[in-house]
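ESCALATION

Customer reports they have been waiting on this structure for their group meeting. Please prioritize. Original submission:
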Amino acid sequence: MNINHIREAIRRITYCYDTSDPKELIDAMGIKLGFLPNDTDINKLKGCYGMINGDKVILIHPDLNDECRRKVYAHELGHAILHPTTNTLFLATYTYFRLGTLEIEADTLASELLLSDDIYYKYMGRNNGFIASCEKVPQRFVELKLNNFRKRLNKF
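Update from on-call: job pushed to the front of the queue and completed.
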């Protein structure tokens, strides 16, 4: 899936629901939210997306703080939008399917949703760790956003 498809998907949903907040989008899109069992290892699983009885469902770890929830909501929303019928938790648990591409696509959607194109200019000359800290997102989101932004610039 290419970046233009991901950016267009974000443009459509943020326009349709008049928000770019991941939690608000999840609610507006009718995606059910729930919590993983309390004994889930937070270092291994912060959230997951899947279909249960035909309903889109996102489960998150109950111990996540608000800042971390926002990131997890954005990532799992990426799965709901880009891979609506793919149960990534099932694939990871019960098959040998490699989730790498699906995870990168979900992270890409999250990075495009949470970070504006302005960060390229706003933080020019700053390192990705600094930007991630200021924007309260994982460094990989900043790296994805800036790499995709540079690719778009190079097309001109």
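Sent to customer with the following note: The first strand starts at residue 32 and ends at 35.
Escalation resolved.
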